Amino acid sequence: VIFLLCLVFIYFLLSAQYESYILPLAVILSIPAGIFGVFVAIGLTGIQNNIYVQVALIMLIGLLAKNAILIVEFAVQRRRAGQPLVSSALEAAKSRLRPIIMTSLAFIVGLIPMMGATGPSAQGNHSISIGAAGGMISGVILGLFIIPVLFVLFQAVQEKFSKKSQEEVRSYHEEPTINHELYETV
Predict the structure, then answer these.
(1) Residues 57, 61, 64, CA angle at the centre, nearest 5°?
(2) Which of 85, 73, 94, 54 lies closest to 152, judged by CA?
(3) Contacts of residue 83, Cβ cutoff 8 Å, sequence gap at least 6
(4) Per CATH, which fold does 23-159 belong to?
(5) Domain-wise residue ranges, the chain
(6) Strand runs (DSSP E) across 22-138, as ranges?
(7) Buried (b) or exposed (e) across 2-38, using 16+ Cβ within 10 A?
(8) What span, in angstroms and rounded, lies between the C-alpha atoms of 9 and 6?
(9) 155 CA to centre of own chain
């Protein structure tokens, strides 16, 4: 229930940000790639699905959504500037690759001390760190391919059914009109 509420909350925030009910799906549907990685990582290491793994899942939803937002927001800006749909998605993924890799790598390296923790809370630390690292690795690697595809898909749907989006794209391609009557009177 909590995971569903997290996703609904993110969806509403993104709907307000993008002024669209369709485009946030590109962000939301990229998150399962990271969730898949969590369960693969804990399965390979023999960790049970406990409360610590679930905390890692909630944390991961926010971090992977942030990465997807970076790509989608940049693609939206390029699209509004009149760039072709596929080109804007590919350029967004290429230009956001380095910042996403750097922040994700810093996050994973920060989890390494928790992976080697000993003592009374070691099992909780192992669960959070291994789950979050596995999810971040798979979410970033798969997300860099999934997010641009989802953006192209949902942006095309939005442009097909939204006159506002079509007019915005057309307005960037048209020449600005100049009122020559103003210049003749001077």
Answers:
(1) 125
(2) 85
(3) 91
(4) Multidrug efflux transporter AcrB transmembrane fold (1.20.1640)
(5) 23-159
(6) none
(7) eeeebeeebbeebeeebebebbbbbbbbbbebbbebb
(8) 5
(9) 14
**How many CB atoms sit inside 10 A of residue 135's CB?**
29
Per-position pLDDT tens, the chain of length 186: 777 887 788 889 889 988 888 999 999 999 999 999 999 999 999 999 999 999 999 899 889 989 999 999 999 999 999 999 999 999 999 999 999 999 999 999 999 999 988 888 889 999 999 999 999 999 999 999 999 999 999 999 998 887 665 565 555 556 555 555 655 555
Read off the amino acid at residue 175: E
- Closest alpha carbon to 14 in 29, 3, 2, 1: 29
Q: Is residue 121 within 8 Å of residue 107, measured between CB atoms?
A: no
Report in angstroms the alpha-carbon separations of 14 from 18, 64, 66, 161: 6, 14, 11, 19
Does pTM surpass 0.85?
no
Q: Record the tokens describing residue 102, joined without a space.
A: 């750097």
CA separation, residue 94 to residues 53, 97, 131, 145, 148 (Å): 31, 5, 27, 10, 10
Amino acid at position 28, single letter: I
- Enter the tokens of residue 122: 């070691």
